[in-house]
Amino acid sequence: MSKLHHPSGTLCDGADPVVLTPADAGWTYTGLRVLRLAAGESRTVHTGDFEAFVLPLSGSCTVRVDGEVFELTGRETVFTRVTDFAYVPRDAEVELSTVDGLELALPMARCTRRLTPKYGPAEQVPVEVRGAGPATRQVTGFGVPGVWDHADKLNVCELITPDGNWSSYPPHKHDEASDCEVVNEEIYYFRIAGSDGITPSATGFGMHRTYTADGALDENVAIRDGDVFLIPHGYHGPCIAAPGYPMYYLNVLAGPAPVRSMAFCDDPAHAWVRSQWADEPLDPRCPVTSHEGRLV
User: Fold this and answer.
1) How does DSSP assign 201-243, residue by residue?
2) Phi, psi of 253 (to 5 degrees)
3) 240: which of 5, 172, 175, 225 lies 20 to 30 Å off by Cα?
4) What is the number of other CB atoms lying within 10 angstroms of the CB of residue 61?
């Protein structure tokens, strides 16, 4: 059994679908919690030595931290809208509450600087279409350097891959400090839509590949809704959405570099693929969402 692939339910804690600390992952910086709150429920979270984003996956919520109050509009599902979010610092007591019920992600990174809480409006989140042809996908860069610089270590983005398409391609890595890349620990958190293309479902599936050039690591796994995959090192990609089942994933990255970065190196064996995209049309299904809702 893979030590990197954690199928849905294997990281749960009570009603919460995912509780993953750096110690659980066997590394230093990157963690993830996915919380599920019932209608009318409140929850208090202590961040400790981690900074985090409060990212609604479905539903809306109120965030109270350091005397600030942020009302997050949220969304129906990750396949329906780009959401607003909040940044919360380390050493904070965060109160989360919801009227109608909520599922949210807390991507987090161990850090040293304590920043102030901050609200991230959905209308300011950039939506980028990357790749071409069957490798076309949407990248929602809400928490990446150059877009969101109010963080110490944490880098986060969302991807939506239309059914039948490939993303995280060409395969790439970020496990050494070089002119090309920086060292980052990375978490992939997957949601797979069902036949309506909107509602996450255990029926659908996709594929994910992680490997090293020397073959010491070579994992090809079937991914289902709610799965987590850890990337401690090596090339990762592609992520493939099976026909009929759109794929979402949350990328959480952090590492020892003094300046936040998501720099990577493509696998030289497959880097040539990028040069072909200039002559290929984009998949018209991308972008899939914006802050106003679904576009397709």
Assistant:
1) -SS--EEEEEE-TTSS-EEEEEE-TT-EEEESSSEEEEEEEPT
2) -135, 145
3) 175
4) 27
Cα 196 to Cα 194: distance, rounded to the nearest angstrom? 6
Strands 137-143 and 155-161: antiparallel
Is the pTM higher than 0.90? The answer reads: yes
Pairwise CA distance, residues 168 & 222, whole Å: 15
Query: Following DSSP, what letter does each residue of 165-192 receive, concatenated?
Result: -EES-S-EE--S-SSS----EEEEEEEE
98: helix, coil or strand?
Answer: coil
**Average pLDDT of the chain, as a whole number:** 97
Indicate if the pLDDT at residue 137 is higher than 90. yes
Rg value, the chain, Cα: 18
Residue 270, C-beta contacts closer than 8 angstroms, at least 6 positions apart: 169, 170, 171
For the stretch 264-293, pLDDT in tens is 999 999 999 999 999 999 999 999 999 999
| Number of neighbours of residue 73 by Cβ within 10 angstroms | 14
Nearest to residue 197, comparing CAs of 98, 296, 281, 55?
296
Residue 194 burial (10 A CB sphere; 0-12, 13-18, 19+): middle
